[in-house]
Amino acid sequence: MSKGPVIQYQTIAGHCILRSCFAMALTMNVSFALAQSGNVTNKIDAYVAPGTIVSIVDSFSNEAAGTMTNEGHIYIKGDWTNIGTYTSNAGVVSFWGSTLQKIKGSASTHFFDAEIDNASGVNLEQQIYVNGTLGLTSGLLTTGSNEAYVVNSAVGAIFPFSASSYVVGNLRREVSGSGSYDFPLGTSSNYELANLSLTGATGFSNILGSFTHAIPNPTPLTTGLNANGHPLNTMLDYGYWTLTPNSAMSGGVYTVTLNEIGAGNQVSTPNVYAVIKRPDSGSAWVSVGTHYDETQSVNGNIVTAARSDLSSFSDFGIGFGNILLPVELLSFTAALNENVVDLDWTTASESNSDFFTLERSGDASNFTFLTNVKGAGTSTGRLDYHRVDEHPLQGTSYYRLKQTDLDGSFRYSQIEPISINGANVDVAVIPNPTTLDNLNLSVIGMGNKVARVSVVDALGRTCFVENITPGSDNYTFRIGVPADLAPGYYTVEVSCGDGTYLKKAVLQ
Question: Running DSSP on this structure, what letter comes out for residue 78?
């Protein structure tokens, strides 16, 4: 059935090249490919009939007076802007560009099926709804403050998804009372999959999920917290999940399964882990529901933990009992000493400690072996260790310490950055760890050079920038970061004519 006048086209090499830029009404009711080069704008009506394939190699804009009805398959390589009306009861829109794409406009788009198939990713500048299936084939869907809302309550309404294609930000899902719902979430660096398995759940119809990359325990863990007798007194430090229903749960139970990647304090013993939860960021973490030791696992850098018989939602994280660990590591530091790097670490006690491994990386991701250092086996007092990297990398490099027990289990320290730029300049964050109102920078040897000081969070976002001129060889500067900055790991960058110096800061 025709929906307005037909735009004429000519066939070239099996494709149809439109003779219009959608500036007038468009009806497409043929079942072969239509290819449109240049930006496409719809100002009146556009209809993509079932079986029709439309390829837009640039951007598409549905203007205020425009009505787009899609029952076919639209492939787009540029940005998608919706100011008018978009409807779809069976159609597909595939974002398959090679550079970052954006979905924007003053009106949210209600897709039927939407596919992210762009390794460079797609960013939301407006809310989107998916009434059919959200396909995460390749690349990240980054929502910012917006939401990707999957309206279809089927458990398979998000498919496919993977460690290379997931949602960074806010993912809302309609759910039914029973079913296993995946929330493929993460950061720009790591995939953090959560799953909710509902049984007879009532009182709500949808759940909003997100993952926060920050130290998850600004409130200390409650003394005596345990899971089946295993003490829990710390948490994996990469982040935590927030799962929030649209209204309170009034009946039924659920199981939550979490998969955390990227923690700097991971240990290799599965049964020390357990899911813990808290109502909000100002409350203590608690251990409720049912914990089974066999539901925890460690697979490479992925820690999986689950908890059953839960009946309320909140923040979720993975806790573990570091008092069960054979080695209590007090500190690990890397410091530039002229043309070499001093690597020092201290243990408070050791039990069945086999050896330590020093590792180095040029990108904070791919680490290589430097040397092994024999552990003490068993000790009850403080022990200090020292090694020197006599041939450090130029530019910025990263160091970490791996501790291995006699049974083969292991854990990593935090990562320490070092910058070597050939100048006799030293910078330090004091004290460290510290609080928002007491973040200070010590600069030695810079004199009257102008330097740019910036603070960058773990996602690469700049939180503070200011230029300074020390004016002396021993200068201290108070860094006035925003008062609402979340606790977590940050990098302080000091850039001057001699190079850039990086220091890690832990804000509590």
Answer: S
Q: Are 356 and 403 in contact (CB under 8 A)?
A: yes
List residues bridging with 385 in a β-sheet.
345
Per the listing, tokens 């250092």 go with 373
In CATH terms, the superfamily for domain 325-419 is Immunoglobulins (2.60.40.10)
- Of the chain, the end-to-end C-alpha distance in Å amounts to 64
Distance from C-alpha of 393 to C-alpha of 367, rounded to nearest angstrom: 13
Q: Cα(130)–Cα(504) distance, rounded to whole angstroms?
A: 40
Query: What is the model's pLDDT at position 7?
Result: 31
Share of the chain above pLDDT 90, in %: 49
pLDDT digits (tens, 9 = 90+) for 125-151: 999 999 999 999 999 999 999 999 999
Please say whether the dihedral angle defined by the alpha carbons of residues 261, 493, 506 and 278, taken in this order, is positive or negative: negative
Place of tokens 């409130």: 219
Q: Give the H or E element holding residue 191.
A: strand 191-202
- pLDDT, residue 34, reads 54
Per-domain residue ranges for the chain?
Answer: 10-174, 178-323, 325-419, 423-507
| Count, residues in the chain | 508
